[in-house]
What does this fold into?
Amino acid sequence: MTGRGPRGERGEQAEKIIAAARRSFATCGYASTSLRSVAQDAGVDPGLVHYYFRTKTGLLEAVMQPPEAFGAAVAAAAEQPLHERGRAFVQANLRLWEDAASAEILRSIILTAAQEPAALQRLRQLFSELVLAVVSHSLPDAERTLRASLIATQIVGLVMNRYIWQVGDIAALPADAVTDLLAPTVQRYLVDPLP
Amino acid sequence: MTGRGPRGERGEQAEKIIAAARRSFATCGYASTSLRSVAQDAGVDPGLVHYYFRTKTGLLEAVMQPPEAFGAAVAAAAEQPLHERGRAFVQANLRLWEDAASAEILRSIILTAAQEPAALQRLRQLFSELVLAVVSHSLPDAERTLRASLIATQIVGLVMNRYIWQVGDIAALPADAVTDLLAPTVQRYLVDPLP
It folds into this structure.
């Protein structure tokens, strides 16, 4: 899709390296991964990994980059009419996680953040910018940052149970049923009076 | 507390080894941890680690053991009158996570499960037995396993945002305020008609 010129080729090689780093961080851990081992897994020269990413921190930064669709999907849901927005947030997250390619990236971000303080710091920053800020900016009232945080508790818990741990009934239900079950909670956090 | 006889001493040594394994799994990753490195970190002879835990899998099993208070707290909450049970579940979890010692164990279980499939399998089993089964058995109706799973989504999401990622308003509020905010959701999952 990207053509065969130097630019397209560079994109492909970099993607290969990122995919190898993602696998290695998730299965061997961040500490056990080296630029050299990533190069070997990706089938490229170690110099190329150094050239594109400089350091292991550079590679981590690339691995922690969420799929482009993620920010866009949350932002689109935040623009829905307020009375439908709870459902829109649940659906947007389910769509991203039901898609194998974006789910793999999101999963590796969560798993890598569990091991490496720098990755956790990056997850915190991305989550604040792409989720909490976007959700709260869409709301009119003074409690909007608290509302965004409450919504995050429900949606992150859904993701952990259904996709990361794969435990309980919520992991086995069709996505539409999950939406029907959780959208009312998210909607309450958006608009109901808080205690 | 355990005396100085051989039995107390064995317990202390084993606890030291488990604590070292927990730190190593969480910071260096399961794959990079060896019985030898754990022995070194614990300041004991490698033969002792082998003697108590046999293999790295044996050590993993010990690390994945939740605090005794965990199962007891969930079970006690499940025995509260139904109309107060939502609040009881939230409070029980907050109490465990606000306690530094039990929080450290629970955190290491979650972090280790993020890296190692055997640990994830163990977490899934413990979570099913100690949380989902206990919550659902306390309920009278046919939807009880679904209700338990819904409650788990809310509580796990709370734990991830507040204690593991430490992100958003929910991470900064006093525990009592968190209880007031989340107990109504858990209560609805316990008793309200489901879609």
Q: What stands out?
A: Confidence is low (pLDDT under 50) at residues 1-7 of chain B. DSSP finds ten helices and no strands in chain B.
